[in-house]
Protein 1
Amino acid sequence: MTSPHVSQHDMPPPHVLREYALIADGERGALIGPRGDIVWLCVPRWDSSALFSSLIGGSGHYTVSPRGRFVWGGFYEEGTLIWCNRWITESGIVECREALAFPGDPRRAVLLRRITAIEGAADLTVHLEPYADFGYSAPREVRQDEDQVWNGRSGKLRWRWTGATTARPRDNARHATGLTMDLRLSPGNCHDLVLELSEEQLAEKPEASHAWNATVSAWRREVPTLENNLAPGDSRHAYTVLRGLTSSTGGMVGAATTSLPERAEAGRNYDYRYVWLRDQCYAGQAVAASGPHQLLDDAVRFVSARLHQDGPRMSPAYTVAGGPVPNQTRLGLNGYPGGYDRIGNWVNRQFQLDVFGEALGLFAAAHRHGRLDAEGWRAAEIAADAIARRRHEPDAGIWELDNRAWTHSRLEHPSQRPVAALSKGPRPGRRTADAPAARRPAGQRPENTANVARLHPGTYGRLLRLSVPP
């Protein structure tokens, strides 16, 4: 691997993590700092390499920032992941509305930025430095077409930047580093910037106002009001964040980023851009407590698919496409201060028994709302059979530690009360011959039922009806 093109010229410095805002469209997410600096974005998917990676020491960033001194603030528009940066400058107030066009297209990202001079004139600088592959692939083939739209390539990505008519290339002694623009707005005026990113040929240019209207409408459709909750505002924002992290495949990633420190210099800096099945089961059950909303169906769909795919060998985590998590490696970057530069995750080598129990809890929650179809029922049988088959094996436990007989793993499976709900009510289907479940001779009890009977006697008969083939 060659050295990354790390330029310190106008590189945004790191901020405290709480000062970054997340915008997301389900397929990928970006982090925006208080200077209007987008310092993290992986394209085309969550687990792809980053185009903007200055958060962890790479070169790429996309910054819209006021000139001179300012005080920063910001807010999310209710029920959306549309962020609004707000700066009080020495001459007035300026805002930048930020979003990824929603819902996201797995093959193409559209980054929307609308700058408005709320009070007084606004003077800003704009920098676009699209360095793909975590800073290892500099922009190339940069040109402005007959419509004054900028086009270029970075690594495998094609990009197109609309609204930057007066931008100019910025070069150093060896290569172009990106584009820069000065922007001045009269009081009350606004200006749109649209950045498109794809590994494929870019289609027709989106019209900014239409893209904004479609994004706002989609968020209104996707996020329920949750009015009957004790804290509807907080619940709705939590649902909004979870929806932004959930792909069209149904998979919900643990985080948009990698290698950020849980505690400075403590070594706990991992890549969470994958779907942790346990976490998705928890999220699905939390949603079910409020009602049969779409995120519950998404969780059931993704977890069921993994059980049908891998049966008792199901991994604790997957990519959003259902593929294996890559091995952990280092990027050769400085990392976020106190953190590292890791991508991939060794969870791909682990067995975590409790994940099968969490899946059963999710399926039970879906069943209570009448949302468990025949595929879901067969997935529940696969999970129960996997527990019966593997419950005596040492596992990594909930915190991914050394393989041992962890208490949580032994308790968080069919002994939990939600499993009882799976045996109630009509079933929409029976197990088919091609389901990759562990097989036992007819009438043989699963090995775990003795302990289940002692822990939760009331669930014993129901569990047996679930896990023994009819």
Protein 2
Amino acid sequence: MRTHTRARRWAFVLLSGVVAAAVVYVFGPAGPDLVASLAVGSVVVLMFSVALIVSNERVKQVLIDLLSLLP
């Protein structure tokens, strides 16, 4: 059961990145730009991954703050 929950969490992380990339690709201010879409999707995946993996709240907040400075 625990493995199933872990797989769902990672599926959510990946799906969030794909959705963010798709939204930026379709509705981005500069029109369809694949590189910008992939960059945003990657940052979203990294932010959710940090939130999922890191247990220390201070470290988690610092890492998420640093990642929010990316595109």
Protein 3
Amino acid sequence: MTAPDASGGGRSDPDRPDASPIGGHHPPSIVDEFVEARGATRVDASLPGDAEFALCLTHDVDRPYKGLPSLYYALRERPIYHTRTALSSANPYWQFEAIADLEADLGVRSAFYFLDEQHLLLDRPLSDWTSPTHWIEHLGRYDVESPDIARAVRELDDGGWEIGLHGSYHSPEDEARLREEKDRLESVLGDRIVGGRQHHLRLSFPETWRHHRSIGLRYDASLGSGETIGFDYGYRPLRPFDDEFVAFSLTIMEQALPDPGQRYDAARDACDEILREAARNDAVATALWHPRYFDEREFPGYRRLYRWLVERALELGAWVGSPRELYRWFESGADLDRSDESRRRRSRQSISGGDRSR
């Protein structure tokens, strides 16, 4: 299913870069050819609790601080609002607590993929300094080892949410870089990371998956599109090497939907069509909502739509949770991991740290 045309498409997100040479949209024909030529297989295990279908919830943590990127956004749209948010100590993009509260209320958990982007001036070659795309990409960089981010990572993990790797912009073809990012995030987490997704869906096919498998990841969720929604890559996750490594495909990214702030019914209906198709085909669907889209002032309607999506999936008999939980079910063929389930039941404290004045 393709997203509506420009007259009815999703909100223009000024944080989106220009099209990537190895990401943004992966032609389904590439997957078909790979499956046919390489002997890749699909996950055909039953779903937890004999569910009608599965919905995996994910959040790519691109920009937890708005800060200086506000000045860039001000050049694109709403200059007064974005300039004011650049100068304010409030941080509309720190949405960890809002998301956790919403999901806990619905009895589900999701995955948060944290980004360890390189520093443009300290880590990247001089040739990158002349590219506006690279300046935009690195302007909102954050440090996964900073106190506020590290605290958010640990508190989410304590509450049963999955912490995963959001491979950086330049990492798809760089195994050493991916390993370094994974090691740093695991040192913050104090535990192993099971999987993740590449930033901007930048996937060098299938080399990035080989790198993921080599550094110890068990799954990847980068295969997909930020422009269309649907099951273009199949109804079940792929085993690209016919072993334990799994590739979850992305079914719905929020920015590919009609803007729910302007056309809520159209966005809801598009999601409902996807969920009904999933139920008819015993499918595994994956949804991506970037945390900043939970800020109702900047992205009205998206938080409401996300809640509806989860509630509707549950109403249709879906299993809803993180890719890590589902992966463990597929590999064990038994009960979901007890540590995930026990942490779902724990009381959760506020996930602090969003105030830039701290």
